[in-house]
Amino acid sequence: MKTGNHGRVMAALMSLFCVPAPALTVHGGSVNFRADVVDAPCSVALESRELQVDLGQVRSNQFGAMGSYSGITPFTLVLENCSASVSTQVGVGFSGVADGKDPLILAAGKGSNAAHGIGIGIFDHRGDLIPINTEAFSPVALQEGENRLQFFARYRSTARQVTAGDASAVASFNLTYQ
């Protein structure tokens, strides 16, 4: 019996030394949720909302004449969860700062290091130029589920001589359902 009491005494003594530490709460950061609720036949896929199209580097002397183009760079806008029973077609329009000499294309370049004599044209899947700041262009048939809309971008010279510098631009896109 002494052995049993000894175990109970040891357990009681150990419980006195095993006091849990008080809880400590620290700020760990924040989570930003970005979303839109839309009343539309499709939703724009997350990877297409802030799309980055890399036109790369082109030599300023590769443009032989005003109106000449660089090579094409394809890009895709992805629509998801589409309901073809709501709308059967979608058209896409692009808006942004138009080039001062050619209002059909985007002005390229920003700041004191901007390239001059060049803009960016956006083309539909057939290769037709989509004029900037106009209504939706070239409607395509909507399929149930995911739809991948193909486009192309190209530099276009707006002067006889193109000077080197930053040639980036930003365009927003709008969807028109029919």
TrEMBL record:
Pfam families assigned to the protein according to its UniProt record, in alphabetical order: Fimbrial
Keyword Signal: yes
PANTHER family: FIMBRIAL SUBUNIT ELFA-RELATED, FIMBRIN-LIKE PROTEIN FIMI-RELATED
UniProt keywords, alphabetically: Fimbrium, Signal
Protein name as it appears in the record: Major type 1 subunit fimbrin (Pilin)/fimbrial protein
GO CC terms of this entry: pilus
Top-level taxon of the source organism: Bacteria
Fimbrial-type adhesion domain span: 32-178
Family per similarity comment: Belongs to the fimbrial protein family.
Location(s), subcellular: Fimbrium
Principal localisation: other
InterPro entries: Adhesion_dom_fimbrial, Adhesion_dom_fimbrial_sf, Adhesion_dom_sf, Bact_Fimbrial_Adh_Pro
